Amino acid sequence: MISTRSFAKQLLGFALATAFAGSSYAADPLKIGLVLPMSGPFAAYGKQIEHGVKLYLATNGDTIAGRKIELVLKDDSPGTAGDVSKRLAQELVIKDKVDILAGFGLTPSAFAVAPVATEAKKPMVVMNAATSAITTKSPYIVRTSMTLPQNSAPIATWAARSGIKNVFVLIADYGPGYDAGGQFRKTFTAAGGKVVDEVRVPVNNPDYGPFLQRIKDAKPDAVFLFLPPGAGTVAFMKGFAERGLAQSGIKLISTGDLTDEDILDALGDSALGLVTSFHYSADHKSPENQAYVAAYAKAYPKDRPNFMSVGGYDGMRLIADVLKKTGGSADAEKFVAAAKGMKWVSPRGPVMIDPATRDVVQTIYIRKVERVDGKLQNVEFDKIADVKDPGKE
Ligand code: PHB
User: Fold this and answer.
1) 234 Cβ neighbours under 8 A, 6+ residues apart
2) Which residue's CA is the closest to the ligand 1 atom numbered 2?
3) Does residue 149 register a pLDDT over 80?
4) How remote is the CA of residue 233 from the centroid of ligand 1, in Å?
5) Which of 110, 180, 272, 379 has CA 20 to 30 A from 327's CA?
6) pTM of the entire structure?
């Protein structure tokens, strides 16, 4: 028999649950809409980021601040068509009623979804896309990856110090390429170096032949490049060797996107000796990274963890830490306020969310590709601590 009192209590509970439905009622599951390229030329980005997110939940538990985390994954292949990403993000908000938007492999995807996050008032956690300006496109964006200027300045300084004087710049013709090339030019020329030429190549399936010939004719000391890692990078490296550029003594310098662990084995011995600057190496020597690499190898034995997986892992960690602070609320204003200034030790090293830019402040390492125990690795040999995004200074 139900007493009047307990019935009244039940009614109150129902009223409260209804009032809080869709906002922060503690018993609701928390839905994260992941927008990622899962097929097409950049499918490896989606795979790595998804691996990172899932590994965090598998290692740390998938109920946070009383709310069970549910992932809703949408494939925005090829990842470079903003209209596709935008439509999927709108679907996630309207049909799937997600609380948080996350993922974003490539810049066009993040740029296109930023206004959706603003209008729907949803936190948007960018786990890879790395054009500096992305975080300025919505007050609800927090990024857990990096920016291209952040990684391009250190390699420019290293090149100038290493006696490289004339550099040819080759960049993919979109945001991250402009950011990488622009920051490299700025830092390198300020240190006394000279950029002798610059070419912009299509993001998808370019024929590198004519560009490689132009570089060969210009005879620079080095080529600085940014290409989104994938089959294109492998083709570029092959052409660089086959057309005799490496043999003629032209060096290659880049951000670590070039020697990302997901494509490093495909690059093979042509990558040996390459010096790059980056925020993550699977070879990073720390207990946090050793645990990460071991857990990753166990969960995904066919793959190697790369920076994108760490962007996903840290992105999920950020979401978890924020929810613990807000008592399970994913309200966009509260989410961003809680994320600002947050610090933790990532597999990459110590990180902080810059309260001014909502980007990561982190250590950038200078690394060289070496064979370690039979495996190609980015071996860190120098570092600069607490690097902010110079793209917004
Ligand atoms: C991007 O499109 O923002 C992007 C893609 C690949 C990278 C870095 C940035 O390695």
Assistant:
1) 263, 266, 267
2) 106
3) yes
4) 12
5) 110
6) 0.93
Number of H helices, E strands in the chain: 12, 15
Q: Give the pLDDT of residue 27.
A: 63
Ligand 1 is surrounded, with C-beta below 6 A, by 106-107, 129-131, 176, 228-229, 257
| pLDDT tens per residue across span 173-208 | 999 999 999 999 999 999 999 999 999 999 987 899
Note the pLDDT of residue 269.
93
Bridging pattern class, strands 166-172 and 194-201: parallel
Q: Tell me what pLDDT residue 249 has.
A: 93
* Ligand 1 atom showing the smallest separation from residue 109 Cα: 2
Beta-bridge partner residues of 63: 68
- Per-residue pLDDT reduced to its tens digit, 37-47: 999 999 999 99
Index of the ligand 1 atom closest to the CA of residue 257: 10
Q: Which residues of 322-360 are buried (b: 16+ CB within 10 A; e: fewer)?
A: bbebbebbbbbebbbebbbebeeebbbbebbbbeebbbb
Number of C-alpha atoms within 13 angstroms, CB side, residue 103? 37
Average pLDDT, the chain: 93
In a 3-state reduction of DSSP, which class is residue 211? helix
- What distance in angstroms lies between residue 72's CA and the mean position of ligand 1's atoms? 22
Instruction: State the DSSP code for 259.
Output: G
Residue (of 251, 250, 252, 173) closest to 205 by Cα position: 173
Lowest mean pLDDT of 25-34, 97-106, 143-152, 333-342, name the range: 25-34
H/E element, 267: helix 261-267
- Whether 360 and 146 have beta carbons less than 8 Å apart is answered as yes
What are 365-377's pLDDT values in tens digits?
A: 999 999 999 999 9
Question: Which atom in ligand 1 lies closest to the alpha carbon of residue 307?
Answer: 10
DSSP letter, residue 293? H
C-alpha span between 256 and 268 (Å, rounded): 15
The alpha carbon torsion through 286, 292, 297, 303 (nearest 10 deg) reads: -100
| DSSP summary character for residue 133 | G
Measured distance CA(261)–CA(272) in Å, rounded: 13
